[in-house]
Amino acid sequence: MFGVVVLVFVFMRFTPGDPVDLMMGKAGNVTQEQIDALRAQFNLDAPIYVQLYDYLKDAVHGDLGDSFKEQRPVTELINQTMPATIELSVMAVLFALVIAIPIGVYSAVKQNSLIDRLSMGVSFLGVSMPAFWLGILLILIFSVKLGIAPPQGRIGNGTGLVHVTGFYILDSLITGNWAALKSSLSHLILPGVTLGATMAAIVARVMRSSMLEVLCQDYVVLARAKGLREFTVIAKHALRNGLIPAVTVVGMEIGALLGGNMIVETVFGWPGLGRLAVNAIFNRDYPLVQGVVMFYAFVFVMANLIVDVLYTFINPKITI
Amino acid sequence: MLEISNLTMAYATKRGNVKAVNGVNLSLGKGEILGLVGESGCGKSATLLTLLGLVPYPGKVINGSIKFQGEDLLEKKPAEMRKIRGKDIAMIFQDPMTTLNPVFKVGEQIRESMRVHGFMETKEGNWWQRREKNKINETERVLQLMREVGISSPERRYFEYPHQFSGGMQQRAIIAIALACSAKLLLADEPTTALDVTIQAQILELLAQINQERETAIILVTHNLGMAAEFCHKIAVMYAGEIVEQGPTDEVMENPKHPYTQGLLRSIPKIGKVRQKIEPIPGTVPDLALLDETCPFYPRCNQANEACSRQRYSLRDIGAGHLVKCAIYG
Predict the structure, then answer these.
(1) 3-class SS at A106?
(2) How near does any CA of chain B get to the CA of A93, in Å?
(3) Does B119 lie at the interface with A, CB-CB under 8 angstroms?
(4) Is 0.85 exceeded by the ipTM?
(5) B-chain residue closest to A311, CA distance
(6) For residues A264 and A125, what is the distance between their CA atoms, to the nearest angstrom?
(7) Which pLDDT score, from 0 to 100, does residue B141 have?
(8) Which of A14, A48, A99, B203 keeps 20 to 30 A from A173, CA to CA?
(9) pLDDT mean across residues, chain A
């Protein structure tokens, strides 16, 4: 985490472009004094190591500074946009797992069947398709042509949703606002599918190959020899073992998911962290970029921790 | 109890039907132990799997019948076959290290086999009481079974996972699974091959004990003729999917008739003989896809005569229940 913070800090300041120039514009109506004052306000006139020291000193106290552009605390901005991103990511992961695991298992059980070949072909497409292109494609088909899903934003106008947690699905469930639930779910679908597509494709392939391996194991024959139904043999004895590699892959893919957030949120105008980060980078909003990246690093570490803990549940050979 | 006649199972391959089990006839009475002996790849395990109705893809039974307790298993529907599998006929596998499912507790794996068949089911109370009662009865029986097969402190080991068991203990757990529903027929597919010698003896002793106490019939598949001689009442020698010699153990061991059986016996080292020569059987098991209408052992046989290359012979009784399939005996 510390390494990430320092690296981002240094690289941001070496990036061409200056936040003060950007804010003042190149117009001639600003005086040098005004520019210097703004620099001093942002602590940009000090040497870089002093800047870093000051930043870290505040950061350990939980103060990530104020955004240059918004003039509001970075932590507040992150808090505000975080629920949208988490909602989207959870949707994407759910979509990926709900789609990929059954497909992977079915393809392995019916190896070389038409459905196996078809789904593996589609998953090959899914792996190779860039998210922004898939996103635009989905908007064109489902929003523009068919008009069944909204292309932009998190929720429709006039649903009167009361904000409780910031998670719109949760909020609408708590307040019993079904119109808002329907609206926020329909807004979630396209970005969720776009974000989860790559993960779904990868998980389906991993699931298929691990199930193929598991299905030839002696314990599967034993399960059949016990007189179990074929469904129980696969869903209980084989799946528990086949899931182990898939969980590993999901853990690794979470990093890719965070990166994908930026693209998908930009394409779908999703008011989340990813878009916040992209805008912050364009505005050379140093504290905001640092804050968001720090948060991403934190989420990544936590996600991998959760995956490791999950491991101990599905694989008894591993204990904490 | 078990009457297999003319059983033929073949794998459909690009090179045609490969008959892994070819016209096998076997019979087994209650409490009998039959040894099925032969080299690797001669169709021993395939015969067992066919018996259970678990022929591996792309195999298919193309002929014959398996009469078990008067009913033909080959005519049963999959659901009916499931009720027999694990309940009346149970199987013990070759490699205990890979046969138990690594992600479930050993005790639960033993309990599962009686739960599927409702072996300890009670009829009293509502569904919740029944459920709880079943669980208690089943767990009790699991602990008792674990004790019977020689797993010490079963109360603790019930909750352990397979990787915490040694190979010998895993095989005992698998035997407990096979005994869970008091199966009448045990199919033991080389149950001691993956274990070291002292454990092998213990496992065989355990199987013999089960056979005597419960009158369980056992088919023991092995490539170890010595083991079969010590343990089995009857021996059937298989070669290339066919039974070439069959009879009571003493008769077959002391008076082997088929050149293949004789070869197998000659290739066993004998304790006490100094600087003896072990005679291997020359050549290897033939490619099952290339078998024609001649004796499959003909190319490797040291007693082959000109007649062997012309036609195939069927099993012939030469007295005292001793059957041989060889041209020498007509």
Answers:
(1) helix
(2) 25
(3) no
(4) yes
(5) B103
(6) 18
(7) 93
(8) A99
(9) 84
